């Protein structure tokens, strides 16, 4: 199944961990602290940055963001936070109540997600937790409880997207690699090939593949006996792929790739197979339900946004407004 777009994923994350404080008014001095106000309820710059940092750690932990990406992220996250605040305000209009017991239970549950109590206290207050619960209750009551996906809808999606439920051909491969540099001399290449052929001979004489891999392989999976797991077409170099998929079970062959020389063995094969609807029916209907709930939430937020009084004070929003005004002239 196709995963939900990142924006939808972010929406789920941010709505459920919203940490928006309330304020009755908005003076000129206060505005400098705010990223936005929604019907006079503020989202502070600190709260926006906290959400930014959370998302960066979750999705961009391995690579730095460009200034353009950061600006775009700030704008998108602020929009999602505004949506979260509109949902919370709607929960209050609907009379959603949060009991002491519910708040306490959620506080204890949330604490387990932090390394220590101080870190938790610096991130959430009881009011934050109450807002989270109230928003979740409102979403459940207004959207989740009213959304039903029938078996007919599940079947229709399944038949229309059959490729998503087709398990491709795959082969279970173990591998012993003797590395060869790209600029290696013929002598170095011959030496590496001779070493691997000696390993192959030892294997044919009754040696254990896993132990030989642990002893001789220079691949990252040597410690696990050379186990690569199930390999799909397109995941490895063409020469490696063709050798692996044409091997008979438990047979071995030597193949050359950019990394060097491999002694590979195919121990199991799975042919292309369409996963039966019955095997995925429950997960599929749940997936479709989540999609439908998100559509309802998006539509609700859009409608509420048109009725709300919203001011945005971030530099990115101000620059965008200036650019729009300049373009208009």
Structural class: alpha+beta
Give, in spatial order, the strands making up the sheet with the most strands: 5-4-7-6
Q: C-alpha Rg, in Å?
A: 28 Å
Average pLDDT reading:
85
- Number of helices in the DSSP assignment: 13
CATH architecture verdict of the largest domain: Orthogonal Bundle
Largest sheet: 4 strands, antiparallel
Strand content: 5-15%
Tally of strands = 9
CATH topology descriptor of the largest domain = Triger factor/SurA peptide-binding fold
> What percent of residues adopt helix (DSSP H or I)?
55-70%
Highest CATH level, the class of the largest domain: Mainly Alpha
Question: Mind telling me the CATH superfamily name of the largest domain?
Answer: Porin chaperone SurA, peptide-binding domain
Number of domains: 2
Low-confidence stretches: 1-29
Give the SSE order as H and E letters.
HHEEHHHHHHEEHHEHEEEHEH
- How far the N terminus sits from the C terminus, by CA atoms, comes to 47 Å
Judging from the principal axes of the Cα atoms, what is the shape? elongated
Key features?
alpha+beta; Triger factor/SurA peptide-binding fold; Chitinase A, domain 3; 3-stranded antiparallel beta sheet; disordered N terminus
Verbal overview:
The protein has two domains: 204 residues, Triger factor/SurA peptide-binding fold (Orthogonal Bundle); 103 residues, Roll (Chitinase A, domain 3). The N terminus is likely disordered. Helix 4 crosses helix 12, helix 5 crosses helix 7 and helix 8 packs across helix 12. Helices cover 56% and strands 15% of the residues. With 329 residues, it is of the alpha+beta class. The two termini are 47 Å apart. It has a four-stranded antiparallel β-sheet with strand order 5-4-7-6. The radius of gyration is 28 Å and the shape is elongated.
């Amino acid at each position: 199944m196709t995963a939900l777009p990142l924006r939808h994923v972010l929406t789920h994350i941010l709505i459920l961990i919203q940490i928006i404080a309330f304020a009755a008014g908005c003076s000129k001095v206060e505005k400098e602290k705010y990223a936005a106000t929604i019907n006079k309820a503020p989202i502070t710059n600190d709260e926006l940055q906290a959400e930014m940092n959370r998302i960066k750690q979750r999705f961009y932990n391995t690579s730095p963001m460009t200034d353009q990406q950061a600006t775009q992220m700030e704008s998108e996250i602020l929009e999602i936070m505004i949506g979260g605040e509109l949902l919370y305000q709607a929960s209050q209009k609907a009379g959603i109540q949060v009991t002491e017991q519910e708040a306490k239970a959620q506080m204890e549950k949330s604490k387990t997600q932090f390394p220590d109590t101080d870190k938790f206290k610096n991130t959430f207050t009881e009011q934050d937790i109450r807002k989270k619960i109230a928003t979740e209750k409102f979403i459940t009551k207004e959207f989740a409880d009213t959304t039903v996906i029938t078996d007919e809808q599940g079947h229709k999606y399944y038949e229309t997207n059959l490729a998503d439920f087709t398990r491709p051909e795959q082969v279970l491969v173990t591998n012993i690699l003797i590395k060869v540099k790209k600029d290696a001399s013929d002598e170095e290449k011959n030496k590496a090939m001779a070493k691997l052929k000696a390993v192959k001979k030892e294997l044919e004489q009754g040696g254990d593949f896993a132990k030989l891999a642990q002893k001789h392989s220079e691949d990252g999976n040597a410690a696990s006996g050379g186990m690569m797991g199930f390999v799909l077409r397109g995941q490895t170099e063409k020469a490696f792929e063709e050798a692996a998929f044409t091997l008979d079970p438990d047979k071995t062959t030597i193949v050359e790739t950019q990394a060097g020389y491999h002694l590979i063995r195919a121990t199991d094969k799975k042919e292309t197979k369409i996963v039966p609807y019955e095997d995925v029916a429950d997960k599929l209907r749940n997936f479709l339900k989540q999609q439908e709930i998100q559509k309802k939430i998006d539509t609700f937020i859009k409608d509420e946004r048109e009725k709300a009084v919203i001011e945005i004070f971030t530099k990115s929003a101000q620059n965008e407004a200036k650019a729009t005004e300049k373009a208009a002239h």
